[in-house]
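WARN retry 2 of 3 for item q-0093 after timeout on previous attempt; input resubmitted unchanged.
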Amino acid sequence: MLTLLKVTMVALLNFSYITLFKARRIKKMANDKAPFAARKELKKLSERIVKAAKIELEVVYLDEAEYRKMRLEDGIVVVSNHESNLDIPVIVTALDIPVGFVAKKEMENWPFYSMWMKLSKCIFLDRSNPREGIKSIRKAVDIVKKGYPTVIFPEGERTLDGEIGNFKKGSFKLATETNGIILPLTIDGTFFVQNRKNIFIKPNQKVKLTVGKPIDLRKMNQENSKNLSESVREMIAREKV
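OK item q-0093 returned
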């Protein structure tokens, strides 16, 4: 209970601070620079949330050399399993590329969070409305192609039991239509910190984030791309203990 209150206060106070003292300056920036500035502020916030939750974070690279070769202009789509509400701050803290997210439509009404999501070129996806969902994915494709890496959770929701669920094929339209690079991530441990069955945060837990080998879709043949959702899911599941 105390850790939940601490994390909530850290998030609230930091969101309030950056909204009061940073947002106006970022909004005045050039359109191509403002999202990176916003993402930088959200990274600082994420690091503070991870620290407040007392998460012991380990980051492992399966092919760090290939990871370092990625360029933002290549069009990077980060694909991850989804265990907890803490997955977002964990991913932002772990990666040194400035990522945004595809988030569920309901988050568009969250105070502070919504404004900063918009400033950082994140996308709100309405899964209940296929037509609007397609529009959102197309917008996300344009954002990724302009050099803003974007994270998507193809399960569509947090796991109920800690196991990785099915990856929705529709989620991979963002990657296939971008025709850039997929970066697979495996999150292992945030489920035991906080999950859908328990709102409270359990501190002093180990969380491992495995950064998979980047997949260059431009080098993939049509046959392999047909089973993209299954093959990426297998890559991610393979690294989960």
